[in-house]
Amino acid sequence: FQLQASGGGLVQPGGSLTLSCAASGFVFSDYTMSWFRQAPGEKPEWVSSIGRSGGSPISADSVKGRFTTSRDNAKNTLYLQMDSLKPEDTAVYYCTRQSDYASRGQGTQVTVSS
Question: How confident is the model at residue 56 (pLDDT cuts 50, 70, 90)?
């Protein structure tokens, strides 16, 4: 199976970005999906997870109230809407199947800087 994140970039503090993750090679709607991030020199950090039908997303305290996780099972795509971005959100962002970091595919770089 494959997971490919996209939509990252350079944004100023307080700005917004929407990440997408295209899934293929498995039945997307059968799996809870998650977002992780990893900053240089840091351990991976869990960001959020969302249930198979899109209900009851949960997120880390560090992003709660600023990031919104959603999914479109018809398009096999996971999303992460990121608002009020802070410099400490700078990282490579990955999507994963369930909460299995080893399942991550290509990540996307998010850089928050003025």
Answer: confident
